[in-house]
Amino acid sequence: MARQDERFEIQVYLTDHWVTETYARTEQEARRSVGDLLTNTGFGGVRILREYTARNGADAAQVIFTQMKEQTKVDRIGASPIDSAPMCRSSADLLGATGRQTFGRVLRAYLDRFVLTQTEVLYNPREAKKAMEADGLAMACVSKVAALQAKEAGITPQQRSNQIFDLLNAAQERAQAAASRPGLPTLEANARFATVLASLKRVASADEGAFLAMVVLARDLSATRSWLGKLERLLTLIEGESDGDAVRLIDQVVADVLGSVDGVRDLLGRQQNLAGAILALVDLLDGKVEAKGEDAPEVARTLAARVNAPGLAETRAALLEAACRQLRGRGDLVRGERDQQILAWKRIGQRLLRATSFPGGSRMAEALVLGYLRFQEQGGDIGRKAVIGNALAALDSPADRVRIAALLCDTELGDQFPEAVRGRIDDILWPAKSMNDLTPASLAPPDRMKQVAAAWRAVKSAERVPDRSREKWMEIMDRLLAAFIDQSQIVERLDDHAASLRIRATRLVQFCASDAVTEGRAADVARQRVIGHLRQPNFDQHFVADLSGDADRAKALRDFYALLRRARFEA
Questions:
Q1: Contacts 24+ apart (CB under 8 A), 424-433
Q2: pLDDT for 125-173, tens place per residue?
Q3: How far apart are alpha carbons 44 and 13 in whole angstroms?
Q4: Is residue 276 part of a domain?
Q5: What's the structural domain count of the chain?
Q6: Whole domain around residue 18: which residue ranges?
Q7: Residues 531 and 449 in one domain
Q8: Torsion angles phi and psi, residue 324, rounded to 5
Q9: Residue 27 in contact with residue 64, Cβ under 8 Å?
Q10: Is 11 helix (H, G, I), strand (E, B) or coil?
Q11: The overall pTM is greater than 0.90
Q12: Phi first, then psi: what are they for 260, rounded to 5°?
């Protein structure tokens, strides 16, 4: 039975865009119309959008089906523009992360037209053949890459083009041989990719087994012509998978999907504006999805739950690149005047600064600062230098400015204007006399301490800063934070004698292990208090004196000593 708040829009593909053909009340009715539409020679494909009302009352839409016609000739798609192309010297380089990224960027228009990943083109000989035979496409793509790589290779662009074609032809021949291999397994609906990989490694070398498994995966994935469908299939294969090699191979393909702007857009679901999309990407990088109900596809929640697990390095890198690309761009973040745009930018900055860790580190910080260029009239190097001060000044907390500036030190922007970046840190820290000069006094003490400690850690990690400057900045923040802890009597409150020794000692160690203190004077007072407790005679007996039962006492001691180790106490 159809829901009253949903309908299904059937769209057809014309040359280079989708247009609405008709509507249906039910999904079954919509799918029945697909076959007839595909017989129309004027349509290049058909897709179905489910339109519905989300729980928050907003209109929402989701692509639930896409099918493109098989085409052997594509004469209207050219190479996509690229400005860099790391050198590929072997087939392994071509199939590696940087090689696939270059392949995906230069072939982006083609991949998006047919909803394909570069993995499917590289490992599925059928798709490789169609791409290579598309009029002018292969030559245009190879020429673009060769022009960028020829100088590094010390040869002419034509010579480099010949080398690249040799690599592509070798990859295509290898994929064809693998696909023609007798007994090559298939990925059934409920099959484990790790099982397929293991079976192939038993009859081939580890490297060849992995290649054969990718051929199987590419063939399976090519049957799905929607980005969400591909992601759902890949994440289903990863779900509960403990085989590290299998996860790493699937990770490559998930990253390929996320290299498509359309793929990321489908993953995020309906977003009101660019700022919302960027915040959703930050949420994903932080391992969470804030959108409720049907606004975010279920696959986004699945990815968020897994994205920070071991083995998904390329997926995280692809999400980071997508977020940075949008953040440092020039598009409007929200509808409205300049003031509304800046407020949206600050909201993104606050989300990054208050995340579990600063997602993306220096790269994201650079994108945040360069994104402020959308509010400036100056361009070029003058604008890039000016934006450092303008963007930092837009942040409310001086400690946050120090943190972002410290992250900038290890970026291209920081290398270009080192004095402008480091000078901002000097301007904040050298005159600082108290925590009031580093954080707003209106904030709660724990929040103020966390801001300064986060800035301290960012400075400590700034590898391109001279040791003398870094150590001085760290000393200033540590000294002011220690004075604040002393003046606020935080340690005394934690070590309140009205509580049991177990409660007091645990509070103190948790404080030492928290992200609110620095590794210097700020932590020393609390650490010395803990050491004083530990050195008292019969500490273990006193620690569990308020507990009854041997099991409870043993567990309390185990947990406490584990906490000591996390806080790096020599117990």
A1: 424/388, 424/389, 424/392, 425/459, 425/469, 425/473, 428/398, 428/401, 428/402, 429/402, 429/473, 429/476, 429/477, 430/476, 432/398, 432/476, 432/480, 433/480
A2: 999 999 888 878 899 999 999 999 998 889 999 999 999 999 999 999 9
A3: 5
A4: no
A5: 3
A6: 6-68
A7: no
A8: -65, -40
A9: yes
A10: strand
A11: no
A12: -95, 130
